[in-house]
Amino acid sequence: MGPTQVHPQNGMAFTNVCEEQLRPLYIAALGALDPRPGTRLLHVGCGTGTALRLAARSGAEVAGLDASVDLLKVARERLPDADLRVADAAELPYDRGCFDQVMAFDAIQYTEPPAVAVAELARVTRPGGSVVIGLWHNWSGREASAFLNAVRGLVPVGAPGSQPVRDLYHLREVMVEAGLDVYAYAEVTRRYDFPSLDAAWESMRFSPNVARAIEVIGMDAAHQVFLANFGNQRRADGTIQQDNLFQYAVGRATS
């Protein structure tokens, strides 16, 4: 059996909350790729095309795919000249070596097994071309990390080779296993201020880890875990401050 999606992205709701929050990761990863005019660049899991629009500014010839028809409708409005397709990230509908650069953010690492999906990114990248994979490591504040760890504990554990990639060390291991020569990696930090406890929950509940827990134990139970960690963190004005840690690695396709 081929790779299967552990948790699909949550449509427009996920995008509205999270895609803009991932912008610092997009910018840093594209800086590492440094696409030039004419570069053939693919974004796997492109959502509404936020990262592709940034790449297109360099003159790159951009293409993207996503499993969500609704997200791609928005992407096509934003990028009418791009090659955008509805497809599964685990089985890319492209020939071997047809892109110079390929990127994926918070998508590939939630498939089973992740190395098989990453190998698909490598397959469609020309020899010597680059693959960048980025992830939202966690919310690095103490309460948020405790919340995520508690939520993960509520979800059944899969086989060791199918565990989601949650950190840079594991990401680099998976990329090497998939046949990529990892030559660069970095972290990006960003602080977000949410206007209320409800707004912070809205952001967190569309994380793949949290959304998977909601599927297993229900919204109310997951929300109670959130409140146990964040309920006393509101500042005097009612806002919640959250530190975020993004990570990415860049690998060279060797065949």
Describe this structure in words.
With 255 residues, the chain is α/β, with parallel strands linked by helices. Helices cover 38% and strands 27% of the residues. It has helices at residues 11-19, 23-33, 50-56, 69-78, 114-123, 142-152, 168-177, 197-204, 208-217, 219-230, and strands at residues 4-5, 40-44, 61-66, 83-86, 99-105, 111-112, 125-139, 180-194, 240-253. Strands 4-3-2-5-7-9-8 form a seven-stranded mixed β-sheet, sandwiched between helices. Strands 1-6 form a two-stranded antiparallel sheet. The longest helix has 12 residues, at 219-230. The relative contact order is 0.17. The model is unreliable at 1-9 (pLDDT under 50).
Spell out the key features of this protein.
two-stranded antiparallel sheet; alpha/beta; 38% helix; 255 residues; 10 helices; single chain; 27% strand; 7-stranded mixed beta sheet
Cα distance, first to last residue? 24 Å
What portion of residues is helical? Answer: 25-40%
Low-confidence segments? 1-9
Question: What characterizes the major β-sheet?
Answer: 7 strands, mixed
* Rg value: 18 Å
Estimated share of beta-strand residues: 25-35%
Q: Give the number of DSSP strands.
A: 9
Assembly level: single chain
Rough outline: globular
Order of helices and strands: EHHEHEHEEEHEHHEHHHE
- The total count of helices amounts to 10
Strand order of the largest sheet: 4-3-2-5-7-9-8
Mean pLDDT: 84
Structural category is alpha/beta
